[in-house]
Design brief:
By secondary structure, the protein is an alpha+beta fold. It has 2 domains: about 100 residues, NusG, N-terminal domain (Alpha-Beta Plaits, 2-Layer Sandwich); about 90 residues, SH3 type barrels, CATH 2.30.30. The chain is about 20% helix and about 40% strand. It has 4 helices and 16 strands. The strands form 4 sheets. The chain has a 6-stranded antiparallel beta sheet, covered by helices on one side. A 5-stranded antiparallel beta sheet has the order 2-4-7-3-8, covered by helices on one side. Strand 13 and strand 14 form a beta hairpin. The longest helix has 13 residues.
């Protein structure tokens, strides 16, 4: 059986009546419960984000196309941390991701970057978390304005976008003509301002 990665789906998202100003949190959910949790959260009026991609699985007699999460076992949700009980009692939710027992919000810019990549329709796939590499900024195309790490994979250029708290990444195919390297001095300044990676 061979698994191939194809273009991502438009990520489902639902907005509640008043929670758009709350921070994003990552929810750890039971295996294969991502869609179920999304349905329950939407029913409660919460804004959630579950980025998906289409995957073709080839058997000897057929090819089946399935929809899989870009971040298996997680779903993103906006909510007021002081009133998180309705979130934690949602069927399928295991916990709010954080440090120890302290939930930590996801950087809005990281969520926005993943949303932009999914909406672009460019081929994406889950990718091992990266911290080092040539940082670039996309100057042209549907991902214009995004920053990430550039790498080569089977002769194709990919922009790797990361969610630091989850230590997970997504790789998006890009044209090498779209990107420009970020000066090393700027990278050094950014590294000084950023906190150490969370475990």
């Amino acid at each position: 059986m061979e698994q191939q990665y194809t273009s991502p789906l438009a990520a489902p998202m639902r907005r509640g009546p008043s929670n758009g100003s709350y921070p994003w949190f990552a929810l750890r959910v039971r295996s294969r419960y991502e869609n179920t949790v999304a349905t329950f959260l939407g029913g409660k009026g919460y804004e959630w984000f579950l980025p998906l991609y289409k995957s073709r699985r080839a058997w000897s007699d057929r090819i089946k196309e399935t929809q899989l999460p870009l971040f298996p076992g997680y779903i993103f949700c906006r909510f007021d941390l002081q009133h998180r009980l309705p979130i934690l009692t949602t069927p399928g939710v295991v916990s709010v991701v954080g440090i120890g027992r302290c939930p930590v919000p996801i950087d809005d810019a990281e969520i926005a970057a993943i949303q932009t990549s999914v909406r672009s329709g460019l081929s994406s796939r889950p990718w091992p978390f990266l911290e080092i590499g040539q940082r670039v900024r996309v100057e042209y195309g549907p991902l214009c304005g995004l920053e990430g790490i550039l790498l080569d994979f089977k002769g194709q250029r990919r922009l790797v976008l990361s969610v630091t708290l989850l230590q997970r990444s997504v790789a998006v195919e890009v044209d090498s003509a779209w990107v420009m390297a970020i000066p090393q001095q700027r990278q050094a300044c950014a590294a000084t301002l950023n906190s150490p990676p969370l475990s």
